[in-house]
Amino acid sequence: MFVLTIKGRDSNATKPNITVDPTLVASHVFLALQSIVSCNADPVGQLVVSVTSFENTQRYLTLFHKTCGCAALFEAWQTRFKTWQKRGSADTARETAAAYSAEAEL
To answer: Which domains occur in the chain, in start order?
Structure first.
């Protein structure tokens, strides 16, 4: 299980230039993880990434919250991917979040 909290910058949706939307960043993190899996894993080797939860406590449609919590499940049957899922997935999450001026905590 991979549990991740993305920290962005909260603001009003009318000011997207000063906002870092953590939900958008989390989406990009999981797209990056899935892309790495699909481009590097042997199709017979069976490596799977499943996003199992996205949680944002946003109650008002015009506000961006500061954090977004998410979880994913990795299943790996090859040793090199078991190693990657521990180290590489964390690095990928942090680097992708940083590209959007956000932080990823695992």
So the answer is: 2-37+45-105 (3.30.70.360)
Tell me how far the alpha carbon of residue 36 is from its chain's centroid: 13
Q: Is 15 exposed, middle or buried (0-12, 13-18, 19+ CB in 10 A)?
A: exposed
- If you ran DSSP here, which 8-state letter would residue 20 be given? B
Query: What are the beta bridge partners of residue 71?
Result: 3, 53
Would the pTM of this model clear 0.90, i.e. be above it?
Answer: no
The answer to whether 26 and 103 have CB atoms below 8 angstroms apart is no
Evaluate whether 68 touches 56 at the Cβ level (below 8 Å). Answer: yes
Sorting pLDDT into bands at 50, 70 and 90, what band is 58? Answer: low
Written as six digits, the tokens of 38 are 């699909």
pLDDT single digits (tens) 70-103: 887 777 776 767 776 767 788 889 999 999 999 9
Angstrom CA distances, 6 to 57, 58, 75, 81, 101, stand at 13, 14, 22, 24, 11
